[in-house]
Structure formats: structure tokens, C-alpha cells
Design brief:
mainly alpha; transmembrane; about 80 residues
Length: about 80
């Protein structure tokens, strides 16, 4: 009772194809594959060691030449 035979799974597959159609199942499969690929790429990119944080800060400061550095003063 706990396991299903191959015939049960084939009948379920046939019903799913009849309900959703092959085109929609193809779209779902390609979307799922794209999501898995994106996840793997994200994990692979995240595993590389980041550069020195001090170098990142100086690179950001040089890129923001129009930014004005101000300091807020409290009223007495």
C-alpha cells in the first residue's frame, strides 16, 4: 500500500498531460531549469573570495565624484 507501481505513475502522468497540456508543461520545465541554473551560478559566484574591502571603498569613492560629504551639526 505504501508504494506505487509504474502503472500508477504512468496514469498520473497521462492525467497531468491532459489537464495542463504539453506546451504549459514545457514552459514550466524551462522556467524551473532556468531557476536552477541561476541558483547554481549564484552559488558559484558567491563562493569566490571577495576583494579587500578597503580597495572596494576607495573604488566607490573615486566613482562618486559628484557626491558631497557633509556632516550634520546639532543646534545649541
Amino acid at each position: 500500500m505504501g508504494s506505487f507501481s509504474i502503472w500508477h505513475w504512468l496514469i498520473v502522468l497521462l492525467i497531468v498531460v491532459l489537464v495542463f497540456g504539453t506546451k504549459k508543461l514545457k514552459n514550466i520545465g524551462s522556467d524551473l531549469g532556468g531557476a536552477v541554473k541561476g541558483f547554481k551560478d549564484g552559488v558559484r559566484d558567491g563562493s569566490t573570495a571577495p576583494a579587500d574591502p578597503a580597495q572596494q571603498v576607495t573604488a566607490n569613492k573615486s566613482a562618486d565624484a559628484n557626491t558631497v560629504d557633509v556632516e550634520a551639526k546639532q543646534k545649541s
